[in-house]
Fold this sequence. Notes:
Elements: H1 5-12, E1 18-19, H2 43-51, H3 57-79, E2 83-85, H4 86-91, H5 93-103, H6 110-121, H7 132-154, H8 160-165, E3 168-169, E4 172-173, H9 176-207, H10 209-217, H11 222-232, E5 238-242, E6 246-248, E7 251-253, E8 258-261, H12 263-267, H13 301-318, E9 323-324, E10 332-333, E11 339-340, E12 344-346
Antiparallel strand pairs: 1-5, 2-12, 3-4, 5-8, 6-7, 9-12, 10-11
Helix pairs in contact: 3-5, 3-13, 5-9, 6-7, 7-9, 9-13, 11-13
Amino acid sequence: MLTRRDDIYRSVQMPEVFSSRSCIPTEPDPPYQWIPVMTDPPEHTKFRRLLLPQFSASRVDDLTPTIRRRCIEVLEGIAARGSCDLVADFALRYPTSTFMELMGFPAEDFEQIMHWEHTILYADPDEDPDRQRAIAATFELYGYLAELRRARMDQPQDDLMTYLLGCMVDEEPLSELDWSNICLTLFLAGLDTVAAQLSYTFFHLATHPDDRERIVRDPAMIPNAVEEALRYYTVLSTARKLTRDIDIHGCPLRAGDMVAMPYAAANRDPDAFPDAGTFDIDRPVGRHMGFGGGPHRCLGSHLGRREVQVALEEWHKRIPRYRLADGVTVMEHGGPVLGIESLPLEWDASE
Length: 351
Ligand code: HEM
């Protein structure tokens, strides 16, 4: 396991040695391939190039009114209640509905999508010990995508699924399998990460009233607060598989070994960030690795960042003061994406 920011940063820039064929330290030979996450250059570059225009900064600027509208719709149902579970009622719902619109998933399938997402990503080791339910849900999702693919081929729409149908790799249209794997990857990469980042950011603001008051008084601080949250509460860590023997700081590693790359450790490295263990809302935006680095640096970074910023803006306009419900113990879960199980918040709805 690499723990220093510079070592992690350097290694993810060397895909010829640190391969992305597996990104889960305990699963060196996965029987599936998330595209583009689990591909290496030059194959990776081809897929990445197809997707980049859909996730550029200017595309996200164009999407922002849609993102804001979705956020407000979810919040309207919550603000007057005086309490909610931030995770279930907001952090999962808002990115899911935004993402569904972007992809072109029918709005009436929302509950079904949430169910698949939950079953695939949060397989409970007691209830689903050999991940049979998670695997079954993945296949159901493939079936669902195949139906939508047929519908889009008959009747193209202005959405990401249709865009991908028109994409060419090596002068051939994407195969059905590659098309499905890309859609599935976007689904898994774009929902849980934003939900987890929102959960930790609201956990912080609910338990640090001084920071919360700062952004309520001066919403222009929100982008900086979001960057510090991405650094301090780093939700995604990764791994790479070695293609050859190598020696790192005197530690011999063999071809085929998995190397864990906890971006969370990189982001709390005291040599890279002064007072790294403190959340400092005024910290100048630096070289954090909340979105990773190298060729696989988060494709959705502009979108993810904007979703969190819009959430903080719109939430605090409606609910400026809130607290953790009494007697709550906040439970986290591990996995490739860290997360908070539930975050019961309360506020005075008449304020
Ligand atoms: C705040 C929210 C997000 C965080 C913290 C986050 C974090 C990350 C990180 C750390 C990586 C690098 C993984 C590695 O090195 O192996 C990554 C990759 C990726 N992310 Fe995000 N992400 C977020 C939102 C999104 C969104 C909204 C999308 C859009 C659908 C997205 C799509 C992707 C994809 C497709 C990759 C793989 C890129 C490639 O392999 O070239 N992410 N993300």
